[in-house]
Amino acid sequence: MERKVIVYTTPTCPWCQAVKQYLEERGVPYEEVDVSTNVEAAMEMIAKTGQQGVPVVEIDGETVVGFDRERIDALLGLY
Questions:
Q1: What structural domains and CATH numbers belong to the chain?
Q2: How many Å apart are CA 75 and CA 19, to the nearest integer?
Q3: Residue 69 neighbours by CB under 8 Å, 6+ apart
């Protein structure tokens, strides 16, 4: 079953690059949303998490703030 994965990023965020590379290496498709240029998406991300920092990874409606490999793997069923 394919999961719906959204990664909220900014172009200058090294952890954003790391999480995208991590997902790509595992063959996990994702939608990238650049919150530095999309104010509506930025407000949506803040409303969901209470955080302004990136990366934020949303997997099937569950949010992960930061690059938390264990939580990402658990939500994706990767071990």
A1: 5-76 (3.40.30.10)
A2: 14
A3: 22
Residue 55 preceded by cis peptide, ω within 30 = yes
Residues 6 or more apart whose Cβ sits within 8 Å of residue 9: 16, 20, 32, 33, 34, 35, 54, 55
What is the predicted pLDDT for the residue at 1?
62
Q: Are the C-beta atoms of 72 and 59 separated by less than 8 Å? A: yes
10-residue stretch averages of pLDDT, the chain, 79 residues long: 90 97 96 96 94 95 96 92
Residue that has been written with the tokens 């997997």 in this structure: 59
**CA atoms of 20 and 7, how far apart (whole Å):** 8
d(CA 13, CA 53): 10
Residues 41/30, Cβ–Cβ less than 8 Å: no
